[in-house]
């Protein structure tokens, strides 16, 4: 199956929307992807078999004709569900316009699952993008126009569901606020005041839409960021704690250990060791 990742950085004129990765895959029974945090948006569409998508402490069961949405900076995992292979296509994109497009069609991490009965059209869009993979201006414009067509198909399918899904907007707005203010002290009461809502109402609504308390969501997001920074930077635990909204490294360490069963410093050592082992294994295969 084709799997392509466009690694070139966007120039200023195209930074509002650009493709990051497109492809299709057949995952064998027992296969999985993640846990992983991505810096861009991804739309997956299932074409065969069944699978599970895990995000925000929730597990969604998927089958052919359904899809799932991944927003930047969320830790997600997906895996096969059953004895049959799981086949899906995906389109990844980034930029400010992609955020607005996903909002317009009602997709967010409080509401990440969608259905589409026009799967063949989505597959054709993907194949068109794969066939125009050259890094030329002509192929670039073709891929971008096809990306809009892909999103237009989803938009057409979701028109009848938007009024129902609009009840998720407060939960989605709260999630966005949390992700943008992780470095600050915040509580459910603080977020409710910012949104102009009653604290009890926001708490009840958020839990009904996501299956977890808002305070638990804040903690989960902070731990996800801490884990990502431990893996991708050389920042000290104290610096990471500050960037995640904790005054002291000890506070981060205590909650990190409670959630993952290991302290942050030891987690970093194990992660780096596993990466070195993977590089050695890959080198020996050559």
UniProtKB/TrEMBL annotation:
Transmembrane segments: none annotated. Keywords: DNA-binding, Transcription, Transcription regulation. InterPro entries: AraC-bd, Homeodomain-like_sf, HTH-like, HTH_AraC, RmlC-like_jellyroll. GO terms for molecular function: DNA-binding transcription factor activity; sequence-specific DNA binding. Residues 172-270 form the HTH araC/xylS-type domain. The keyword Amino-acid biosynthesis does not apply. Gene3D superfamilies: Homeodomain-like, Jelly Rolls. PANTHER family: ARAC-FAMILY TRANSCRIPTIONAL REGULATOR, HTH-TYPE TRANSCRIPTIONAL ACTIVATOR RHAS. This is DNA-binding transcriptional regulator AraC.
